[in-house]
Amino acid sequence: MIGYVTGRWNEGVEPVDRSLLPERMGEYRRKGCRILTMTGTDERLEGRQFALYWVLADDRQGSLVTLRTDIPEDDPQFPSVTAVFPAANWYEREVRDLLGLKPIGHIDPRPLVLHGDWLEEGYPLRKDYRQPARPSSVVDLDRPVHYRGEGIVEVPVGPIHAGIIEPGHFRFGTLGDHIVHLDPRLFYTHRGLEKQAEGRTVEEALQLAERTCGVCAASHAASFSQAIERIANVKIPERAEGLRVILLEMERMYNHVGDLGNICAGLGFAFGVQHGARLKERLMQINEELTGHRYLRGVIQPGGVDWHPGESELYDLSIKLKEWMNDLLQVVETILSHDGTVERMGGTGKLGLNDAMEMDVVGPAARASGIHRDMRRNFPYGMYRFLQLRVPLYKSGDVLARYRVRIDELEQAYRLIREVMELLPKGETLVPLPSLDEGSWGIGWSESPRGDNVHWVMIGENQRISRYRVRSASYVNWPAVPHAVEGNIVPDFPLINKSFELCYACCDR
């Protein structure tokens, strides 16, 4: 397998004829590779064609390879690879909806992003797409699954929910209280961030990257920045690398402790709900004291970080986090000593190792199902390459395992922050970027609280963004939720869903 090389649009890439795509992808699948991301591009203005870039990762070897397939304008289709790579399902359906590149032989021909009432005028991610002022026609693209059979009942839930949450529609096929099948439908508030990025400067696109997800701003900023830094062939200062780790682990901590409380909400265990919210709020107050923003926006940027904490600030942080950790451990001990809570989580919402592997699941969900996968270890970036990272691993794949993974990672995040403070050198925190060559592209990643978060960027004219692709951890993990839900009872769905704690906005980008 060739290693990944960042640079010109055709550098470090294995060209694959579209007729041979399933065969070649199958070969990489048999080698143990997974899809890190797939990007469709419209390169007709540069004298080329449409193209698909498949970035494949070998976690064991720590290597990446990119396959590029040209798609002609007069025949915009390609053979589907979903049969050999099940995780390609959403990628192929999305590229059909937004670029008009049709995956022939796909197992699920329904629209993914453009469901509901949609304009028939063109494909939004093509360069020649223009939003019509007045649509000439609208087509109903909804194709829900309908369940038939004696005793089978359809139970629709959402997209409007009884709480202040994002919209998602869940159509259950049930036999009594037991879930036979779940058909989830997302993408109700697609914002077109990738389209908005076209023609913007790097600085302007960073604002979009940070707003992909409200609670993963640092992870998205880090992934985007690393993509730009790889294109520019820039190494950021070591102090900036360390400060990024502190920010990313702080983001992991406030997300994970919030998730611990939210899972308790699915149980109706008020003690865990209230203390989870309290502990999360304290961390967000610390974020604001440190950086000026509760969600850590405006700090990580291409070239380093715009953050200059002094020794006294970092010392105060270590003291506050030590007190916070002592508080957390007492709360966790109480929760896990509650027999009813542990029994309700144990054995519920199991995601087996085989299903998790087939769906290329990432993050805590993967590690709870026995997959030893973490971008900080398998593809170390920044100062993570110098740190002692212990990846927690469970095999039961149930709600309790996902709960315990988060507890372990909270303790490790605290330890990593302390370790970084000991290693943190003095010096600059930001370096300028050189000119970015037109046609160059790069990829950046981070291990967000939900799993690996991948950004793919191509540079166009005048150092502006030509194509921007965001692949969040939620985008990968959502298709696995129905596998975990099947066979459980309907009242356990909120608990199972909260144990994955996936984001809708990360898909609606």
UniProtKB/TrEMBL annotation:
Q: Signal peptide position in this chain?
A: none
The NADH-quinone oxidoreductase subunit D domain is annotated at 276-431, 446-509
Q: Which terms in the Gene Ontology molecular function aspect does this entry carry?
A: NADH dehydrogenase (quinone) (non-electrogenic) activity
Pfam families in UniProt: Complex1_30kDa, Complex1_49kDa, NiFeSe_Hases
Q: Tell me how this protein sits in the membrane.
A: Peripheral membrane protein
What are the transmembrane regions?
none
Query: Any idea what this protein is called?
Result: NADH-quinone oxidoreductase subunit C
